[in-house]
């Protein structure tokens, strides 16, 4: 028990603590050391343990202590106060429990010796108490615990606290989840997702511990819409991590997600998020070696069904479906599959030039650009002959069935729309012009060339850079094409070369240089 300061001394200490806590930034180690010489740490901690009824005392002291522990010097003192941290994690006071959670984070984050900091956690049995705070605390405390446990996992000895080599730790996350409320299970899923991204070691342990099955259980039970949506949101964040696909695709998760997309009774918001998760799962090249192709085919059939619902008023679901196809098409394997194993890619091409819905058109254009190879390595942009022939056929068929009649007219119609659509159009052209047939369409349309070479066309940084990237792509494709030597294109070649040399930001407008002006004394 830390000594409680006397009443007069307490008032002076609280005033000093309030001043110290009010400083907007981080205190230096020297400032913290000087403050603790005036207000010793044992007395500050004693104030929290005292029964003095002083309004605002707990808030003031906890804010002051957080400032102290936020410094490297203050954090270095924490191993001596493991018992206080332990008591703080067990208290009913939200402010003190929050301080204790942050103290563990500071201990792990600023320790010069990570192993010694982990030893403090083990010695005072802090990890099980952190999990208890994760489950029972409010949103703010839960978020702090997530960051704290993730930091613990980033220290080699700390990962063994969470996942003991013998598998017999005091906290079995799977068992805790099974005995917890819906909210607590979602928080445990969030913790698993954070731990999964720490390293391949933690990801492997999570897989081997069968903790990914908790995601399956939460998604499979669709009686509670909010619970299912929350689980999908956590999964959506998890699948963003590079090595997640290989682990997750070896579970039943993708099939469960397909079941949700196919479930007409499910809320469209849930189906949309499920589609987005599936897109991220299949957005890596490794995905197509880790999964049965029939499962991908089933997914595309489900997405095709959504996109065929022409009467659907739910534009968000349509846009999510198109974005999913774009994610799948980011790799050459995915793009090839879209163009050769299904007719679903036609929705992307047709919607790219359909002005009936702006959001749908934008989603389609971005997806189309990804399928065409924007974002892939240059040597992977073009696909095999079958996929390339199907892509060409889709574009020419869409043009023939529209009032524009030709691909060049379709592409020009996109550039003539608002800036967001035009930027997406530049992206599509950037991907398409490596194909000789599209390069010819673009080069024979002087208006398209005017758009991509005009430095005053765009006013935003993104717009300027995307326009310029498109101009560079056309110029590069042309330089290695036999079209370069066609006399009718000589003026166009010069225009493109000049535009490339000019760069993305320079304008043709004449700039007026500032010049000093000298006035006579009579003016004043």
UniProtKB/TrEMBL annotation:
<dbReference type="GO" id="GO:0043248">
    <property type="term" value="P:proteasome assembly"/>
</dbReference>
<dbReference type="Pfam" id="PF10508">
    <property type="entry name" value="Proteasom_PSMB"/>
</dbReference>
<dbReference type="InterPro" id="IPR011989">
    <property type="entry name" value="ARM-like"/>
</dbReference>
<dbReference type="InterPro" id="IPR016024">
    <property type="entry name" value="ARM-type_fold"/>
</dbReference>
<dbReference type="InterPro" id="IPR019538">
    <property type="entry name" value="PSMD5"/>
</dbReference>
<protein>
    <recommendedName>
        <fullName>ARM repeat superfamily protein</fullName>
    </recommendedName>
</protein>
């Amino acid at each position: 028990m830390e000594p409680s300061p006397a009443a007069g001394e307490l008032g002076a200490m609280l005033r000093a603590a309030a001043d110290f806590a009010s400083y907007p930034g981080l205190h230096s180690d020297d400032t913290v050391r000087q403050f603790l010489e005036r207000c010793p740490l044992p007395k500050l901690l004693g104030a929290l343990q005292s029964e003095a009824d002083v309004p605002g005392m707990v808030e003031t002291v906890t804010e002051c202590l957080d400032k102290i522990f936020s410094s490297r010097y203050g954090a270095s003192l924490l191993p001596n106060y493991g018992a206080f941290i332990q008591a703080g994690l067990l208290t009913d006071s939200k402010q003190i429990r929050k301080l204790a959670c942050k103290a563990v984070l500071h201990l792990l984050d600023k320790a010069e010796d990570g192993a010694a900091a982990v030893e403090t956690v083990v010695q005072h049995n802090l990890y099980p108490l952190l999990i208890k705070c994760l489950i029972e605390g409010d949103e703010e405390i839960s978020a702090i615990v997530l960051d704290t446990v993730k930091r613990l996992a980033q220290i080699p000895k700390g990962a063994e606290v969470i996942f003991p080599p013998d598998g017999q730790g005091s906290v079995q996350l799977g068992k805790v989840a099974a005995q917890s409320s819906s909210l607590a299970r979602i928080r445990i899923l969030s913790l698993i997702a954070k731990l999964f991204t720490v390293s391949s070691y933690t990801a492997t342990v999570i897989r081997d511990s069968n903790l990914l099955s908790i995601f399956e259980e939460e998604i499979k039970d669709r009686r509670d819409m909010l619970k299912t949506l929350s689980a999908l949101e956590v999964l959506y964040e998890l699948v963003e991590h590079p090595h997640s696909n290989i682990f997750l695709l070896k579970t039943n998760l993708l099939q469960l997600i397909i079941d949700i997309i196919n479930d007409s009774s499910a809320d469209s918001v849930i189906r949309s998020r499920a589609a987005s998760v599936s897109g991220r799962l299949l957005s890596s090249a490794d995905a197509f070696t880790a999964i049965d192709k029939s499962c991908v085919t089933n997914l595309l059939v489900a997405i095709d069904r959504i996109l065929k619902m022409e009467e659907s008023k739910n534009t968000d679901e349509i846009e999510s479906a198109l974005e999913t196809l774009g994610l799948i098409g980011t790799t050459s394997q995915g793009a090839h599959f879209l163009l050769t194993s299904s007719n679903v890619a036609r929705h992307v091409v047709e919607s790219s030039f359909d002005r009936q819905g702006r959001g749908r058109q934008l989603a389609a254009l971005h997806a189309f650009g990804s399928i065409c190879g924007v974002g892939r390595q240059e040597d992977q942009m073009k696909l095999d002959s079958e996929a390339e022939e199907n892509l060409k056929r889709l574009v020419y068929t869409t043009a023939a069935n529209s009032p524009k009649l030709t691909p060049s007219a379709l592409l020009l119609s996109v550039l003539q729309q608002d800036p967001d659509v035009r930027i997406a159009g530049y992206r599509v052209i950037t991907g398409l012009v490596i194909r000789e047939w599209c390069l010819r369409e673009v080069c024979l349309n002087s208006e398209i060339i005017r758009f991509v070479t005009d430095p005053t066309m765009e006013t935003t940084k993104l717009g300027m850079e995307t326009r310029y990237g498109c101009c560079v792509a056309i110029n590069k494709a042309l330089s290695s094409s036999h079209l370069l030597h066609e006399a009718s294109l000589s003026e166009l070649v010069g225009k493109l070369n000049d535009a490339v040399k000019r760069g993305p930001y320079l304008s043709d407008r004449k700039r007026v240089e500032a010049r000093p002006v000298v006035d006579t004394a009579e003016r004043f």
